[in-house]
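User: Hey, my collaborator sent me this sequence without any context and asked if I could get a structure. I don't really work with proteins. Can you help?
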Amino acid sequence: MNTLDTIISFAQKTINEEAKAIAHLEQLIDQEFAEAVNTIHNSNGRVIITGIGKSAIIASKIVATMNSTGTPAVFMHAADAIHGDLGNILKDDVVICISKSGNTPEIKVLVPLIKNFNNTLIGITSNKESFLGQEADFVLNAFVEKEACPNNLAPTTSTTAQLVIGDAVAVSLLNLKGFSSTDFAKYHPGGALGKKLYLRVNDIVSKNEKPEVSPDSDINAVIVEMTEKRLGATAVTENNKIIGIITDGDLRRMLTTNTSFAGLTAKDIMSPNPKRIDADAMAIDALDRLEEYGISQLLAEEKGNYAGLLHIHDLMREGIL
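Assistant: No problem. I've predicted the 3D structure and written it out in structure-token form, which is a compact way to encode the shape of the chain:
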């Protein structure tokens, strides 16, 4: 077996072993898990998540997931906690402590201190019989048979299991809260993801030029309007109502079917009843409409009146596509 084949084999084995461990976690979700999640849901405080080593990194990620899905959470490193950071814990907070063994020195020092504060303590551990497992008010079982590491030493499968249990808690809370895509948008205003959740058609077309001709406009006026507005099309309107659209394609078809343009007007070459969308619609819905019909432009309407033209390039520029 050559080196490349060996690498592929190691990678596939790692993924397979971790996948089996994750699949087994489903059987470990029990009444105690449900009670722990319900306790967090009914709490008036935040979720403080702590751990040591690789478990601390997992704790930090779970905090980020909870914060972005409507559950206020704070990361507290277990080592720092016993040197002053215990002050992060408020009266109504629920504390989640993550540790594979549940028996590390830092955990043994930290757990009694948390218990002295009378905060609810939830443990995520692979060893329910450990110190953490015995002392926690609720134990979320993250048992794994072995690490993907061939020496069974480097935290691999165990940290993946911790992460999955944390995601299961966060998503359960999300559903209990009825957390919607609109709520999600409030916490993710930046980047392409945020734009997909909050950007509306009018946010785009209001910044664009607004190409528009009357049905009686001659071909020269149509070409000038399309050239100046640079959106590859123009609406044909009457009393501010959309009656048609003229695209670059319509102009090319005109060139192939007419030897003279004298007397031709917009209504002679326009496509009637063009696809349109409400200006208040989400930009992501506009993309779906463009893809559904295999077109590049949509005309936007506001209360039945022509509001502007949306081009697929606008969505590309905004990172929607």
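In plain terms: The longest helix spans residues 3-25. You can pass these tokens on to your collaborator as they are.
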